[in-house]
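Duplicate of earlier report; Glycoside hydrolase family 65 C-terminal domain-containing protein input re-posted below.
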Amino acid sequence: MLLFGIADAEQASSVLQQQHVTAHGIPCIWPPFERYSSADGMSFGRHCGVVWPHIQAFWAQAAAEHGRLDLFEHELRNLAGKARCDNQFAEIYHPITGAIYGGLQEGCVDEAGNKQIGEWESCARQTWSATGYLRMILMGLLGMHFDGGGISFQPSVPKDLTQLILTNLTYRSMILDIEIQGSGSTIQDFLLNGQAVPARRISASNTGRQHIVIRLG
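Output:
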């Protein structure tokens, strides 16, 4: 709805304003299903209430593209913090504590062989969680938008980050070195190999090493 231009400006603003976001990121579904709830409010279903990083990534990108830098930053910092703390990107996280947490689901079997609701594993080193983080960097921070003709740029940089540098990014027949100076999302200058490019994009037909500098202000 937000990423594919289905929502108009008013609808997008409403979704971004009203969507429930937990302390550790957007939950996959909210409110949680009651059958997984506990008296202390700390139990959540595997597919309701918990935080899945690939969902965080889509939400973060949508927030960035619609000017909600605060929502984008919340997801980015949360997932980056978890990777730093755990030295990996896990499959699922607890929405309140931020701990690696698989959530509750039917199908567990007790010692007597009876099926019941139980806590499942949150698998380690998940590719979709890691690529979700990359999506936040490439399509959120750097604001890269890919189409058949090339890449356009619309960065979204939190205010306490004043310089971003990404080097040796392979794209088609190119190697991209990207530098962003300043913060926010208003582009003042877009330079490709030292030359101003008003269109703020790079053509897919270019070859070799390309140096991109984007100045925000």
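The chain has two domains: 9-127, 143-216.

Merging into the original ticket.
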